[in-house]
Amino acid sequence: MNTGAAVSDEDLRTAYQLAAKIGVAFAANRYPGDAHIVNLTTVGDPEEPAEIAAWFRGKTWLNVIADISDVWPTGDAPGYMTDAAHAYYLPAYLVAALDQRPGVGTMDRLVWHLAPPAPDAPAWERTLFRRFLGLSLGQRKVIVDFLTYVAEL
Fold this sequence. Notes:
By secondary structure, the chain is mostly helical. 60% of the residues lie in helices and 0% in strands.
């Protein structure tokens, strides 16, 4: 974990334990396949989904942890991903965000992405959030643990 900022030993220990729990919770997820990384019909920049697919293609979620914050600092990639790719790469975002602090792009965007949408949220936000319903109970629990950890920083 990033020790550049003032982090207590307890926070660091908790982050490492949480990273291990994330790995266990998502270990059974399978790579979605090269053709199933992004939804090419997603509204937005027409080139971004292809760039995202090319960058993630053939990589395991463990392979992208170190670079994910630098390559996709705004955290927009999950919004373009298929449900299967989202479930597969979500642990990479969770672990990478543990290496940051609130106020840093990936951490803030990820927390926004994981929070339930407001009742009056646009349909696309509600659709994105529904993909969490397909996660296992253990995966949802580790997401709650992640959000709790972030809230306590």
